[in-house]
What we know:
352 residues, alpha/beta, Arc Repressor Mutant, subunit A, four-stranded mixed β-sheet, 14 helices
Amino acid sequence: xxxxxxxxxxxxxxxxxxxxxxxxxxxxxxxxxxxxxxxxxxxxxxxxxxxxxxxxxxxxxxxxxxxxxxxxxxxxxxxxxxxxxxxxxxxxxxxxxxxxxxxxxxxxxxxxxxxxxxxxxxxxxxxxxxxxxxxxxxxxxxxxxxxxxxxxxxxxxxxxxxxxxxxxxxxxxxxxxxxxxxxxxxxxxxxxxxxxxxxxxxxxxxxxxxxxxxxxxxxxxxxxxxxxxxxxxxxxxxxxxxxxxxxxxxxxxxxxxxxxxxxxxxxxxxxxxxxxxxxxxxxxxxxxxxxxxxxxxxxxxxxxxxxxxxxxxxxxxxxxxxxxxxxxxxxxxxxxxxxxxxxxxxxxxxxx
Length: 352
């Protein structure tokens, strides 16, 4: 059990970031690979194991990560706990030199995260926007209570049902919230690294899709031409004026009932249109209390803005350890920020 004591200055400095990056997700994916009970990761796990068996070198680095007793938490501590790159780094894993750790994490990223990264990133960017909407509309208390069943806010304490330092006090430095798809714990706190004063600790919380929606399905491994054709087919279904109005009506996020009232259509019609939009990757759906809430993804906002200069795709909030005062080991693969993600501008057929 971890408890974060947040003072008034901390609450005023709470920020919502995107994902820490694909390498952080690769570390969290170690636990997802070990967790055989999760239905969401079943197909993904089968694919990763198949790649490992077909690999010439057997992806020994990935196998060694899976055998680390402390799992992702221990790997993350060794990965981000210091800036040394020598094999005598301050935080280390027994039997795994620092140089071997960096190579193993890179292997894990390539085999388990990279093939799905565009869709994973889109989902997590949507989760970021969803939490921003909650904070703007309902306040900090609602935001902190929306981070998952294992995270609870009772002023001035934020309680996390996971192992770690029992009590953490940011002392006015604030708190950075970052969603993760692969994280299996209720939450993980990444403290400011040694030598920093102003850096905020990062609370990584799990965010799962409302339904599986093919996020980690075999379709993530389609060749680029086939994936492009599939995307064009999905987007072609958006030619109708009603679907365009639905997408535009979801800019600020709302439920089926609210959207039906706003557009003057039936909730059943809204459900059909939102299903098409979700399959095209333009909106995401998640449950908030008793309601199902739809929000526009980064790709959907890009389409609505009708240009390559979408702020969501460029990234208007600091993400990744380098942007938040956190430093991964020098020479290690750096987590990618939204600036490194470029989604092709979809071609939208003109409607009559």
